[in-house]
Amino acid sequence: MAATEKEFDLAIIGAGPGGYTAAIRAAQLGMKVACIEKEGQLGGTCLRVGCIPSKTLLEATAQFALARERFAPIGITCDKVQMDVAALLARKDHIVATLSHGVAGLFRKNGIERISATASFVSANELQLAAAGDRRTIRAARVLIATGSAPIELPGMPFDARRVISSDQAIALRAVPKRMAVIGAGAIGLELSSVWKRLGADVTVLEIYHTTLPGADEEMGRLMERTLKGQGLKFHFGVQATGLREEKGHLTVRFASRQTGLEKNESALTADVVLVAVGRRAYAQGLDLDKAGVATDERGRIVVNRAWQTSVPNIYAIGDVIAGPMLAHKAQEEGIAVAELMAGKAGHVNYDAIPLVVYTSPELAWVGKTEEQLKAAGVQYNVGKFRFAANARALCMDETQGMVKILADGHSDRILGVHILGPQASSLIAQAGMAMELGASSEDIARTCHAHPSLPEALREAALAVEGRAINA
Ligand code: NAI
Question: Rounded distance, CA 335 to CA 81, Å?
Fold first, then answer.
């Protein structure tokens, strides 16, 4: 018989960016909080197998590529630049462990009870906790589901964690594969293709859409495509992966053009490792949502209202397990807002000002609407563009690829979208996000004094270009 113990104001299922941020904010606001996590390390997908390990590999391999290919023109010579993959993976593991311990420390500091177990609903106020054969029950006035997402498998290509892999394994390959096939040119496909290409793999990406990153502004997606092709990545666009065969020690991925009918016109690609990066699905497996009466939609996502309440008023959900972009910072914003609403404060998330970043080299970052979205909505807009090739600092840094593109309302000049492919785009986009959050116009950025020489000047020049008055173009 399971014992019923302890009463909490709030029990949070999942200690990813959404769950742990909500736990801290709720504790700051005086709630008695428990956070339940089934994995040994705190931090969720982002910290354990997603953003943090991939960014560690991306940073290190970008520096490797720099040293190998771009030091000589600036006058630095190195005899023999080599990458020790084992040392790289050890460093990644160390960074993940450091940050995960950091979350545990924040839990202690804020008096949050960390529970290592797998949670499932017994009722709307009761959770069963299973850990190493042990079962117990806790009660909570409110429950927050922050269980995240899991990689989507393709039919006929089940993950085997060895040769047909998801991002979980693609951040931990012990040796550089000779030939790598990547299915999907989304954020994961492009980032991890970049890592293994820089380390020497022959990488080919298969993508249904006609260029990279279907959700991005199309012009920027095409610029990204050109940039990555220049780095030696190979692409087949407008094709769908249809099957997989293993023979004589290698894998053959079959794919076909979407236009010409799938059976006809089939091609094949040989690879040693296949990374399937075709998206992620909401993960609510094993929660026994039906015992509490929590409703999901046709894609298995938990349905919530504007206050992140599920169909059961005392049960809330945030992050990848609900609708919206699957991004750590989106989950964190929701985590803070939902805790504040629970405490009677005015928690809010501005979904129009959530930045997206793809950490390729150079990075692509954007916030707000794409041109395609504005056209579809019939919005009149003006465009201002500025290339990094004309930015003095970018030239000094030898980082001249890419551009800034600002979309401003045709009547009010209010900024509707900012798109940056270029050096440090992940940092530059913060200024654009702030401008949008404050309801700025392109004129506001155009009239803001920017330090010279600096990369953000490219943003100012793009703002000037909205009215055709860029200075350095
Ligand atoms: P995604 O949805 O961004 O991209 C998947 C791609 O696969 C799409 O371009 C799609 O057209 C293509 N595709 C689907 N089925 C296919 C098939 N059978 N054959 C060929 N192509 C096919 O998903 P991804 O990259 O797996 O990322 C999952 C989630 O994680 C996304 O929501 C993404 O935003 C998030 N993420 C964000 C990162 C970031 O912010 N830097 C990094 C990594 C992931």
Answer: 44
